[in-house]
Design brief:
The structure is a homodimer of 306-residue chains. Chain A is an alpha/beta fold. Chain A has two domains: 127 residues, Nucleotidyltransferase, domain 5; 158 residues, Nucleotidyltransferase, domain 5 (2-Layer Sandwich). In chain A, 40% of the residues lie in helices and 23% in strands. Chain A has ten helices and 13 strands. The longest helix of chain A is centred in the C-terminal third of the chain and has 25 residues. Chain A is globular and about 55 Å long. Chain A starts with a strand and ends with a helix. Chains A and B meet through β10, α7 and α9 of A and β10, α7 and α9 of B.
């Protein structure tokens, strides 16, 4: 750990967050922009402007800055700092964003997938702290994931590992956006859960309502979360039997369903994972909330700069 | 690599193999015993007798021996060298076999799971040589597996990682011997494939016949292997999207079905794994055959002794 400041950027389909963190990963300043109003080139411009503004406002010289970490919602080439594409932000194909930003900001820049950064944050400072091997999930519009192996973020041979949302959970099933079939995400992405809810409630109901109702022990809401928990639990049984992790962390909006969802997931793991595997693993709710992506981006700089 | 000899032992449900290998992992001598005729204590006695005999016959002094490597068909505690249990050999529960053999042989002894050792052998000397991240499977009565991560055998938090055969492939399905449900092994273990064959052929047919018929383009046999390949392919899609390996190796008796089976597996991966993931991965047939377990046991000694 250096005593320098870090800039962390979380690029999401909806929001672009830019933050200044101190050397203890505390967020000192944060700016929120709407991703939707930018094209590719105006978005890069907005990042540069925002970084320069934040440094100026806080009187921070470039030499007091360790670097810039950036999380993106899509697959990247980690070594080269290239964004392959982003499913929910059009116009980005094979963009060497790290090189572009490094040149225009005159700062060290590191990129990673947003789910990897959430996992890194939960591992270093959150619910998976101290784990040797952990698997982290974020449940949202999509189902993202990250894998910690031997106390390090595991990126795989093409830096695209961790796609827990795209584990097939059934031999037949709906086509998934990824091109696959019967993927976990095709069952428990936010819009899919709302469809389950509509079937059970016979009316439209959103996820916040569904979580609130479950906490009040509403039977139909519990039925929805039981169904979600069973499917997620089944995918996790496979992950547990394959990787024998000591920790699983689940975050994202859907994790707000809380106890009802987590109880079902734990019940499936107890009932179906192999005995030694299930005894080795703990399932935790993510701790760092909506800022996990920014904190992970700062940790990425810390791990790779200098 | 030292220039010492190594003793490798492969304990299977049917056969107990004991071999002497030179420092280049070449098998110089091999003894085959029937596992079934032993109890726990007579089996340990037989191992000791056989090791001593092999050393004597080849005039090898203990100081010319690097150690003894032993593969077992069940979960073990790697650090402590304890066999938890063996599904197909009764009477073994929490047996500290490493300590027992070390004391009675006066040699360095290392234990690992047989599927891990097959994976280690294929990675160091076989079809996964040169890979950075690989997943190896053996198809037999059970479906075993091993995972290579960052050029090392990955054992997980409780040294029981790699249970690819116990990834659930469906949300509902048959109970598995492991206590789980709809596991890969419950669909493509040898006896399950024979059941599929019986359904399609409307008569009993064994796996060797089924492989031979497929090589002669028999339609019904191809249908059986297509079904097996589809289910195995679906499980591998999940493993590929999760781990982003550059290599998958498939061995064991069933791999004898050859081209028909491998074509189907590759077709499923091409059609359903995520684009960057599927382009990164190659699927190979195992190279080392029935001696992979012995070679892996020798490599285990090489990696851990001295």
């Amino acid at each position: 750990m250096s005593n320098k400041f870090i800039i962390a950027i979380d690029l999401g389909g909806t929001n672009l967050k830019i933050a200044l963190l101190n050397s203890r990963y505390k967020i000192i300043a944060k700016e929120l922009l709407s991703t939707k109003k930018f094209t590719k080139s105006t978005l890069i411009q907005a990042i540069i402007k925002s970084v320069n503004k934040i440094l100026e406002e806080h009187g921070i010289a470039r030499k007091s800055l360790l670097g810039v970490g950036l999380g993106v919602p899509g697959p990247i080439n980690f070594k080269k700092g290239i964004i392959y594409f982003m499913p929910n932000i059009s116009g980005w194909h094979n963009v060497p964003l790290r090189a572009i930003l490094r040149k225009r900001l005159a700062l060290a820049v590191f990129l990673d997938n947003d789910a990897n950064l959430m996992s890194l944050a939960e591992y270093r400072l959150g619910a998976a702290k101290g784990a040797e091997n952990a698997v982290c999930l974020t449940l949202g519009t999509g189902v993202g994931g990250g894998v910690i192996i031997n106390r390090q973020l595991y990126r795989g041979s093409g830096s695209v590992a961790g796609e827990i949302g795209h584990i097939p959970v059934n031999l037949t099933g709906p086509r998934c956006n990824c091109g696959g079939r019967a993927c976990l995400e095709a069952y428990i992405g936010n819009s899919k859960i709302e469809k389950v809810a509509e079937r059970i409630f016979k009316e439209k109901i959103n996820l916040a309502q569904l979580s609130a109702l479950a906490r009040k022990n509403n039977r139909k809401a519990i039925k929805v979360w039981d169904e979600v928990g069973s499917i997620l639990g089944s995918a996790l049984v496979g992950v547990i039997n394959l990787l024998n992790p000591d920790c699983i962390v689940i975050g994202g909006g859907v994790a707000g369903a809380g106890r009802v969802l987590f109880n079902k997931i734990r019940e499936i793991i107890r009932g179906q994972a192999m005995p030694i595997h299930r005894r080795a693993v703990k399932v935790h709710r993510a701790k760092l909330g909506a800022d996990a992506g920014l904190i992970g981006a700062a940790l990425l700089v810390d791990e790779n700069a200098g």
